[in-house]
Amino acid sequence: MLNLVLFGPPGAGKGTQSEKLIAQYQLVHLSTGDLLRSEIRGGTELGLRAKMLMDQGILVPDEVVIGMIENKLKENESAAGFIFDGFPRTVPQAEALDELLALHNTQIKVMVALVVDEDELTKRLLIRGQSSGRPDDQNEALIHRRIKEYNDKTAPVANYYESQGKFKAIGGIGNIEEIFQAICAEIETVTANVRQ
Ligand code: ADP
């Protein structure tokens, strides 16, 4: 299985690149942000609780997102692989993901991190907020809160994968197609190594 983690701060381009990667490698897309927004639309108890945190730019509790990922892994036993987008966002989530994948006799092959500076992220998110209607993209203070949450809790996840020799950083500013090709080149390198 080709299991990838697409990593980076809010607005780095994970959603855009995920779509292209799914088409290229026939992967199942698991975005915890999308799963949470679907719970909110459905008006579930979980959705209501998550919304209060998401509207403040704060991460939802680890057990909530881990439970959602666990269900999705079970639902997609025969997938060619998964692309994890916006998850894991904390070190305990990364540890839980390793355990869940081990239960399915598989593992993460590579984490690709999209690197984008804060000024560019803020610009992109404010533009996205105009068309997406996402409440967490419409207010600059809230965007800063999310980037701070990323720097405090999520950035250490990169070290977790670095220590497993799975971390690859890619510049996330510039032409979307060129960034995609750079990600594919990393994936090809990793899968070629695995076959040897
Ligand atoms: P972005 O990457 O643009 O911040 P997401 O759609 O991935 O957006 O996430 C939106 C919000 O959902 C986050 O700010 C957070 O509150 C919550 N969320 C998403 N994924 C996770 C996760 N793995 N752990 C905790 N909270 C999460």
Automatic annotation (TrEMBL):
Keyword Nucleotide-binding found: yes
Taxonomic superkingdom: Bacteria
Gene Ontology MF, one: AMP kinase activity
Compartments where found: Cytoplasm
Cellular component terms (Gene Ontology): cytoplasm
GO biological process terms on file: AMP salvage
Residues passing through the membrane, by range: none
Residues that coordinate or bind AMP: T32, R37, I58, L59, V60, G86, F87, P88, R89, Q93, R134, R146
Principal location class: cytoplasm
Binding of ATP, residues: G11, A12, G13, K14, G15, T16, R128, G174
PROSITE patterns attached to this UniProt entry: ADENYLATE_KINASE
Reactions listed under catalytic activity: AMP + ATP = 2 ADP
Keywords: ATP-binding, Cytoplasm, Kinase, Nucleotide biosynthesis, Nucleotide-binding, Transferase
Known pathway: Purine metabolism; AMP biosynthesis via salvage pathway; AMP from ADP: step 1/1
Region (NMP): 31-60
EC number(s) given by UniProt: 2.7.4.3
Domain observations: Consists of three domains, a large central CORE domain and two small peripheral domains, NMPbind and LID, which undergo movements during catalysis. The LID domain closes over the site of phosphoryl transfer upon ATP binding. Assembling and dissambling the active center during each catalytic cycle provides an effective means to prevent ATP hydrolysis.
Subunit structure: Monomer.
Family: Belongs to the adenylate kinase family.
Functional note: Catalyzes the reversible transfer of the terminal phosphate group between ATP and AMP. Plays an important role in cellular energy homeostasis and in adenine nucleotide metabolism.
Name of the protein in its database record: Adenylate kinase
Species annotation: Larkinella humicola
